[in-house]
Every structure is written in C-alpha cells, then in structure tokens.
Amino acid sequence: MCTLTWLVTPEGHEVFFNRDEQKVRPQAIPPTWDPALKAIYPIDTQGGGTWITLTQRGEVFCLLNNYQAAKHFSAASPVLSRGSIIPTILKLDGPIDARAQALPLTRLAPFLLCYFPAHVQDDRDIQVVSWDGLNLTTQTAVSPITSSGVMLKEVRRCRQESYQRIDGHRQGHLTYHQSHYGHPSVHSVCMHREDANTVSLSHIVVNAATMQFDYYAGSPCQNMTPVTSILSIK
C-alpha cells in the first residue's frame, strides 16, 4: 500500500511518496548515493532493492505494487524482487516504455512504475508503466496514484477525496501525506493497520537551482524531521 502525488511549478517539479509496509519488515536504509548508477535512493534491507530514486540527471522513478492485477500473474520461473526494477532500469537507455520492455517481465509480479523526466513542463510529461502479469502498458500519470492490498476501491476513493481538498502547494501535499481522513485507518494516506502502516515519506524537489531528496523515516504523522540529501546542480 503506497500513495504517490506530485506538484509541477514554473520552477520544476516535486514528488511526494508514502511507502506502506508490514510492521515486521526491517527498516530501510535512508537514501544513499550509488556512484555506479549515479543516483540516490533508499534501500530495502529485505529485498535489497528500492522503490524511489532520484538520478544525477534529475529523473525520478517511483515503484508501486500492482496488487489489483495480481490475479493475472502466473510466474513460470522464480519471482524476482520488484525492488530490482529501478536499479535495472537505470542501467538501460531510451524511452521509459522501451526500458521497461527490456525487463525480465515474466519473472516480475505486477507493478506500477511512475517516471518523471528531468525536465517536466506539465503533467503530460509524467508517465506510468503498468505490468499486470500479461500486458505492459504506458500512459500519462494522474495524481494521486494509490496501491493497496486490501479494499482498493474504498481506499482509493477516500484518498482521492482527501486529495481534492489540498491547497496545491508544497505544504498542502506534505499535509496530505500526513493525513488520516478523519482517523488513522487503512483508508488514510498516512496508513495505520494492525499489521502494517506507513513506514516512510519521500519528498523530492527538482528545479534549476537544486535537486533535493528529503526522507522521513517512520509514520509521517509522527516524524517530520527528514534526512536530507542534495545532489549537485545540473
């Protein structure tokens, strides 16, 4: 379960991403610079991969599980961790749909991969690649994007309704990602469930002046003191 939103401004763009996980999953390593891939990203200590990345060129990649498409998936060989998708994509060149097509798709469970190019003029530049276990499609992304392993229809409705009320600025997005839609629950953007909750919030800023990755470990409603990483100006 995760929630992704973004903000496009005349100066550049900003990305906000809540990661929701089981409480038993080990805590991730905060964003770390990878000199080989020329990118910075948090590392999932269980799978060894990542779910969000900022590259030195200013590209941003965000990965969500595509639970609703899982019924179409039947692995013919051992399943690879979806955390390997972004590191693999970063090693490839070309349009995002061509790079996604080069992935070992038959060994990957369904996913959504949202791609922000280095220079975003408007929302039409942002794409989401969807793999449902049978088909790979690419289309223009629409904010917010939500994944959920339970009650997806209800969760999506609640989070979209809450999204419609934000003020459309940076603080509005941050407040949205801390929000509880009335009370902490499976429906809230800052998700709380008996066996799972929101474990981090990532906020990335890309513009002509800076590229900044703010990472908030833990539930956003409780911790808004980030680990901040700034890449060199393009």
Task: Round the Cα radius of gyration to an integer and report it.
Answer: 17 Å
What class do helices, strands and sheet pairing give?
A: alpha+beta
CATH class reads Alpha Beta
Report the sheet-strand fraction.
Answer: 35-45%
**At CATH's second level, what is the architecture?**
4-Layer Sandwich
Provide the residue-averaged pLDDT. 92
Shape: globular
Continuous helix count:
4
Low-confidence stretches: none
Major sheet: arrangement of strands: 3-4-5-6-7-8-9
What is the total number of structural domains? 1
Biggest pleated-sheet summary: 7 strands, antiparallel
CATH homologous superfamily - what is it? Answer: Penicillin V Acylase, Chain A
Topology, number of strands? 13
What CATH calls the topology is Penicillin V Acylase, Chain A
Give the N-to-C terminal Cα separation.
33 Å
The helical percent reads 10-25%
Write down the secondary-structure element order.
EEEEEEHHEEEEHHEEE
Please tell me about this protein's structure.
This protein is an alpha+beta fold. It contains 4 helices and 13 strands. It has a single domain (2-231), classed as 4-Layer Sandwich (Penicillin V Acylase, Chain A), CATH 3.60.60.10. The chain has helices spanning 85-90, 96-101, 152-163, 170-178; strands at residues 2-8, 12-22, 29-34, 39-43, 52-55, 60-65, 111-116, 127-131, 136-140, 145-147, 196-207, 211-217, 227-231. The strands form 2 sheets. Strands 3-4-5-6-7-8-9 form a 7-stranded antiparallel beta sheet. Strands 10-1-2-11-12-13 form a 6-stranded antiparallel beta sheet, covered by helices on one side. A hairpin with a 4-residue loop joins strand 8 and strand 9. The longest helix is centred in the C-terminal third of the chain and has 12 residues, at 152-163. The chain is globular.
